[in-house]
Design brief:
Elements: E1 13-18, E2 24-29, E3 50-52, H1 57-69, E4 74-76, H2 87-96, E5 99-103, H3 104-114, H4 118-122, E6 127-131, E7 137-141, E8 144-148, H5 162-175, H6 180-195, H7 207-218
Parallel strand pairs: 3-4, 4-5, 5-6
Antiparallel strand pairs: 1-2, 6-7, 7-8
Length: 222
């Protein structure tokens, strides 16, 4: 319903080179993405949660502001878009957001740009989530730091899209009111399932299969 077609612009395009150690270099052409500010967050009560991820700079700022104005909780996830913003602009996002998530590199950059420690950043949101690749993830919330383990993959084929899969788990956990220990583990397992497949969206599973994998990985159920 909310897709806007711009006939004179290409869709955003990313070319990602991955080495044998899963380090990645990305070449990106934003194309139509730079016009994301032409879309507004709809004023409708059916929206329960949002996520502000890499997008056109103006669009990211606008959508964060609109989500906050409508009282819709959202995750601030600047990802590869973080270099577009100054420390002051990043702090503005934190004032509006309910949650924030970064990978380890992005968390270092966030600290450099804002001059804040992770603990200080965490004080500005309900939860701060830091992903650490094969070392799992950490969730800072209510003055605590939760250590979220990884789910061991059956095979490692392609890391591209693991961060997005993890974030899907965060959204699912928040929508279903799970606590952060469970939400983090759901996100972790989604990232693991992704890494077992080539491509970003070539994997499928049923909820039954997912819950079986969850119990196998963590020894508990949700």
């Amino acid at each position: 319903r909310y897709i806007k077609v711009l006939d004179d612009h290409y869709t955003g395009q990313a070319y990602i080179t991955t080495d044998e150690d899963d380090n990645q270099i990305t070449a990106f052409h934003p194309g139509a993405m730079n016009f994301s500010h032409l879309n507004d967050v709809p004023s409708t009560s059916e929206i329960r949660i949002g996520i502000v991820s890499p997008d056109g700079k103006q669009g990211m700022q606008q959508h964060a502001r609109q989500l906050a104005e409508q009282g819709i909780p959202f995750i601030f996830d600047p990802g590869q878009g973080m270099p577009m913003f100054s420390g002051e602009e990043l702090l503005d996002f934190l004032e509006l957001a309910d949650y924030a998530t970064f990978n380890d590199y992005e968390s270092e950059l966030m600290q450099q740009r804002t001059g804040l420690s992770l603990e200080q950043i965490a004080e500005k949101v309900e939860a701060l989530i830091i992903t650490l690749g094969s070392k799992g993830s950490k969730i800072y919330t209510e003055g605590r730091c939760l250590e979220i383990p990884v789910a061991t993959p059956k095979q490692v084929l392609d890391p591209t899209g693991c961060g997005d899969a993890y974030r899907a788990g965060l959204l699912y956990g928040l929508l279903n009111d799970y606590d952060w220990d469970v939400t983090g583990r759901i996100a972790s397992l989604l990232g693991t399932i992704k890494i077992e497949h080539h491509g970003t969206q070539n994997h499928v599973f049923s909820m039954t299969e997912f819950k079986e994998r969850y119990f196998e990985a963590f020894g508990s159920s949700f």
